[in-house]
Amino acid sequence: MKKFIAIVLSLVMCLCAVGVSAFAADKPFYLVLGDSIAYGSGLTNAPEACYGKIVADTNGYEYANHAVPGHTTTNLINRLSDPEVIADLEKADIISISIGGNDFLMNNLIDLMFDAMVKNDYTTFDSIAENFYSNFSTIVDIINEHNEDAVILMQTLYNPQSGYLRAPYQQAADRLNSAIERFATENPDEIIIVDVGTALGDDLANFAGDEIHPSVKGNEIIAQTILSTLYDNGLGKSVQPIISVQGENIDIPETFTMFLDICGFIFHFAGTIYSFILGISL
Fold first, then answer.
1. How many domains does the chain have?
2. Does residue 218 form part of some domain?
3. 105, part of any domain
4. What are 197-239's pLDDT values in tens digits?
């Protein structure tokens, strides 16, 4: 059924492109769900300049963004019971989702970093990834209950960190991305993966001063990645983003990133000492 609706949407976009007035009022509805990445928290003017708005403006979609900073997969499940969200969910043709990073960040991050960087123990990482898979399955089920024809775009996770924190962040991202790929394999035609993680890469210019969220440039890259995915699936008319409002990066004090760097160094140093002591005891 989702393949059918994709074909229908493709025809609508093509007809609109050649100016067929009969379809002028039938704009596809584009809905964004998820966390601070989807909200655009790396920008001071997120509602006007985030990647979701860029995608909508470029393809002439109707648009709504119900993303909430700090949300985990559990929060998103609960949000999908909000009447306002349900109303937009029921009329959505295309749904973009960014979720999962906070399943780690909001899950006793200090303990996670200690286990990973000091003890080299990723047991809890594996557990979080399994819970993510279960919750994401529930999210897709809820969406299908309200709208089984909507095309669901699921974004992969990226790694915005440098220095000592990059390795454990990558371990987390890899586990969540593997869970997304596993879901797509086990549930053909349910989701389309948008590989944001690869698109953003490790270029620090793609991330805001908080070293967490996409910057103006990062949002534009995500928008272009989504646009390319939509175009390749016959759901969009352009792969070149239209920037209606120029984004503005958030201004984060250097002390914030210095704190992250110091934490990374402390965990790394503790891990070196721990390994040394463990080696002696063996």
1. 1
2. yes
3. yes
4. 999 999 999 999 999 999 999 999 999 999 999 999 998 889 9
pTM: predicted TM-score of the whole model, two decimal places? 0.84
* Tally of CB atoms within 10 A around 211: 18
Residue 7 lies in a domain: no
Domain holding 196, by residue range, is 28-281
Q: Would 108 be classed as within a structural domain?
A: yes
CATH, residue 91: 3.40.50.1110
Distance CA 213, CA 208 (A): 5
